[in-house]
Amino acid sequence: MGKAMSANQTATMSPARPGGNLKAQLRRAERLRKLKAIGLVAPLALFLIVVFVVPIGNMLWRSVDNTELDSVMPLTAEGLRHWDGSGLPDEATLAAFAAELRDSRQGGGLGRISRRLNYEDSRYRSLLMNTLRGLLAVDAVGPDTDWVATLTEIDPAWGETETWLGIQRTAPTTTDRYLLASLDLERSADGEIQRVAERDRLYLSVFQRTLVIAGGVTLICLALGFPLAYLLATLPAKTSNMLMILVLLPFWTSLLVRTAAWIILLQSNGLVNQSLLFTGLIDSPLQLVFNRIGVFFAMVHILLPFMVLPLYSVMKGISPSYQRAAVSLGAHPFAAFWQVYVPQTISGVAAGTILVFIMALGYYITPALVGGPADQMVSYYVAYYTNTTNNWGMAAALGSLLLVVTLLLYLVYHRLVNRKQLIRS
């Protein structure tokens, strides 16, 4: 027994294994490294959440937000949500509507619901205003008031089922109305999705126009930017730096000034037309501004540096020895350039085209100033609904669809580029 106690005491007093201490120290060092990394990344992550994720989330929510009536007239909205849509709503709903309409004068609630109902029918604003004046003129209002007769006496429209159906469509807290309208769709009286009338179809052609303009500008920038970037990458450093200053020069000028300058250059008596007339190439001035041609001129001038810089950064790192080796082995110079040099620039081409295309999709000032009515892009209508009509739902729906289209095109483009690189490798 004494030998056993002595063995236990010896084991207790023996130092811990070096391997255990080393593992604990490594774990603490790893935790400390992770905490430092999180501390360094946290400010940037917070910044992205505040200025990027939250605004996009708010935009996506506004595209389906339909809380105007529920926030101003909660009892009316609740009653209409349970109404079957036949005849007229019950007396309790009508009484709640009359009481909440009188109270909506406070806090700007009447303006919010009038604006929302006007999206359904432009007559609702005047109807609500006239009804409010009529309700304020009614003296005897009590529990026995016949609200059907009272409201119909103020305006016969309240005796029509269609009037209440229009208000019922604004009762749910969410709606797909704006998203459907952005695709030239609507819901029929029985709730089925259908295309709007031919004269009201607008937004699909606007999206098509936006993609065509953005794609055309991207292709022109690629056609002009690739040889320019190749020239900058192959010239001596001194000459290349001087030319790079000229490429970066547009960044030092205001976007509005550059756009206005193109209007001056391209107008009928501008420098371009006068030069063409002087050389005898044309007999009368060409229409180069306030149309699609002017839009392409101005947007290519503004976005070309965003194509050149990614291409230049990639081309500068490509060794010219590869191309010389292909020529020395018997390849034609153009074949060596196309089969050896160009595949190494795919990453720069991808970065430049995606950057230019995404920026071109959201352009507003340049098409608005240089283009005509048939050249306005989606951003023009987003600005119109935001600044002119205050229809935030429609503006958010158009912006959300543009975001979805951009993401889908980016994913398709990214997959195609990766597939091409995989095939070449």
Strand content: under 5%
CATH class of the largest domain: Mainly Alpha
Terminal CA distance: 75 Å
CATH-level-2 architecture of the largest domain: Orthogonal Bundle
On the 0 to 100 scale, the average pLDDT is 87
Relevant CATH superfamily of the largest domain = MetI-like
Q: Report helical residue fraction.
A: over 70%
Residue runs with pLDDT of under 50 for 5 or more positions:
7-14
The 3D shape can be described as: extended
CATH topology-level name of the largest domain: MetI-like fold
Number of helices: 21
Radius of gyration: 34 Å
Task: Give the quaternary arrangement of the chains.
Answer: single chain
Kindly give the count of domains: 3
Class from helix and strand fractions: mainly alpha
Count of strand segments: 2
Q: Could you describe the largest sheet, including whether it forms a barrel? A: 2 strands, antiparallel
In N-to-C order, the SSE pattern is HHHHHHHHHHEEHHHHHHHHHHH
Strand order of the largest sheet: 1-2
